Structure to design on (564 residues):
C-alpha cells in the first residue's frame, strides 16, 4: 500500500490508475464501521483509496479538533490488511493554504438536526469531500449511515454539482451491546460508556411506540426525550422525527414512506449521535 | 457542430472525446469579445465546447435576467464558423431542478467591487462554472478580463477546490472608440452609447495621473470619480483602486507591482463595467 502525503503525490498516483476507483473518506482512528466501508469498496472497485484527514473546517471553535484521536500507524496497518491501494494523508496546510477561501454550501438539508447545533459543520464536510472528489476522481465513494444527515447532504451536493461519483450509503455498525461505532466513543469513561447505551435504547423505544401504532411526530419525539432524560447525566442536544428525504419536521403524523429518527446526546463531555430510518413499517 | 440541449447529451458527447478539450462559458448574444476567447480556445485545443446559459443564479432580483438579450441562431452560426465542436445549451430546469440547493462561495475576493453591489452574483458564477467544469471536463477554460473580478474569483475557486482545469485570462476587446464590448451595450440608446465612453475616458485619466506620478489611492479614486461626474447622466456605482491580486483597497499608496483600476457606472438604466491593470509602470 502506498502512503500519499501530498496533493501532488495523490494526483500522480491517480494519473496512473486504470479501472474503477473507490474512495473511503475518513478522519482516521479507524473502527469496524470504517472497515465495513473499506471492505465494500475493495469488493466493488479495482483500486481503493482511503483518505485520512482530520478536517478543521468541519469543527466548530469549541469542538474537539485538537483532541480528536489519532493513530496513523494502526490505521495504515488496518488499511493494508484490507487490500487498500493507497492511503491519502495530506497536510492541513496543503488543503487549506494561506489565502484559502472557497466553501460549498447545501442550503436547506443543513438547516435541521446537526446543522442547528453545528452551523458550519456541513459546509466543512461538503468542501473537503468535493476537494477529495477532484483529487481522487472516484467512481464510487462510501459513507456510513450513522452520519445520516451527512450522507443526504453529500448525495445532494453530488447531484446538484453533477459530480460523476456514485455515493454509496453503508449501514451503521454497532458494538455488541448496541452502541453505534464512533471514534469519539474512546472519550468515554467506563461509566459513560454504559450511559451511552441510552441512544440505542431511545431509538428502540421509538420503534416500540411505532409498533403500537403511534404516528404523531410530537408524541414520538416526546417519548424519545423522556427516554434520554431517564439518564440524568445525559444531556439532550436533539431528539427529532423528520422526513427521511428532506429532513424537514412534520406538522402532524410522520411519513409512512420514510421517517428518520435522529438523536444527538452529550454523555460526559462527548456528543454522540445515532439514528434509525423507519420505512413502510420496517 | 453539435447542439447539446441536455446534461445527458453533454455527458455522452464528452465521453467520446479524446484529446484536449477547451471550454468557453458564455451567456450568449456573442460579440467580438466572446469570439476572441473562442478563437484562442480553437487554437489551443483539439475540441472546443461553448456553453450558452443565461444563469439565473448570478442575477439579483432587480436585475436584467428577463430582458438579457438572446439570439441563439446567430450565436450557433458564429460558433460553427469559428470551428467549435459543440454548443451546450442546457435548460434552466435541468441546471436548477426542483430541490436544487448547492452553492459555491469564494468568501474574501467577493467582498469588494461588484461583490458589494451584487451580493449573490459571484456565488451564482462560481456555482455554474463548477457545474460546467464537471459536465464538460475541460483542460482549459477561457474568461475575458472585462470581468476581472470574476476571473480572479474563478481562479481562486479552481485552486482551492483542486479542479484540474487551467483558467485562461483573455484581454478586453473594445469597440473602435474604446467602449469595452458587452452584450449589455445593446441596451443603450444612441445618446447613451456616446455617454458610455466615460468609462474608458475615466480609465485614461487615471493612467495620465499615474504617468504624472500620482500614487495615492485616494487621489486616484478622486480623479476617477470626478471624471464620471463630468457626465451628469452617468451614475457612479464605484470607482476603485485595488490590489490586483487580493482586490483589497489601499490605505495609502497603490501597489506598483499590480494595481487594478475598476469602474462600474450606470448609463441610462444599464450598468457597465470596465477596468485596467497597472503593473510595474505599464
Amino acid at each position: 500500500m502506498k502512503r500519499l502525503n501530498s496533493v501532488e503525490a495523490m494526483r500522480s498516483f491517480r494519473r496512473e490508475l486504470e479501472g474503477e476507483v473507490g474512495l473511503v473518506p475518513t478522519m482516521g482512528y479507524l473502527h469496524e464501521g470504517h472497515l465495513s466501508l473499506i471492505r465494500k469498496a475493495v469488493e466493488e472497485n479495482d483500486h481503493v483509496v482511503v483518505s485520512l484527514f482530520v478536517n478543521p473546517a468541519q469543527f466548530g471553535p469549541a469542538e474537539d479538533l485538537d483532541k480528536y484521536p489519532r493513530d496513523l500507524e494502526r490505521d495504515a496497518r488496518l488499511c493494508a490488511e484490507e487490500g487498500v491501494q493507497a492511503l491519502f494523508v495530506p497536510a492541513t496546510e496543503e488543503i487549506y493554504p494561506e489565502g484559502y477561501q472557497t466553501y460549498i454550501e447545501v442550503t436547506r438539508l443543513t438547516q435541521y438536526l446537526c446543522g442547528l447545533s453545528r452551523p458550519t459543520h456541513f459546509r466543512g464536510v461538503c468542501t473537503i469531500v468535493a476537494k477529495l472528489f477532484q483529487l481522487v476522481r472516484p467512481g464510487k465513494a462510501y459513507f456510513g449511515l450513522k452520519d445520516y444527515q451527512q450522507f443526504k447532504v453529500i448525495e445532494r451536493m453530488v447531484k446538484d454539482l453533477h459530480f460523476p461519483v456514485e455515493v454509496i450509503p453503508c449501514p451503521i455498525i454497532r458494538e455488541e451491546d448496541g452502541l453505534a461505532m464512533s471514534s469519539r466513543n474512546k472519550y468515554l469513561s467506563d461509566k459513560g460508556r454504559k450511559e451511552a447505551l441510552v441512544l440505542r435504547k431511545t431509538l428502540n423505544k421509538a420503534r416500540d411506540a411505532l409498533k403500537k401504532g403511534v404516528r404523531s411526530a410530537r408524541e414520538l419525539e416526546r417519548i424519545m426525550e423522556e427516554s434520554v432524560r431517564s439518564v440524568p447525566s445525559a444531556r439532550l442536544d436533539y431528539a427529532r422525527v423528520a422526513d427521511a428525504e428532506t429532513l424537514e419536521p412534520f406538522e402532524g403524523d410522520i411519513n409512512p414512506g420514510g421517517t428518520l429518527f435522529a438523536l444527538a446526546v452529550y454523555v460526559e463531555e462527548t456528543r454522540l449521535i445515532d439514528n434509525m430510518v423507519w420505512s413502510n413499517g420496517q
Q: What stands out?
A: Residues 121-136 of chain A form the longest helix (16 residues).
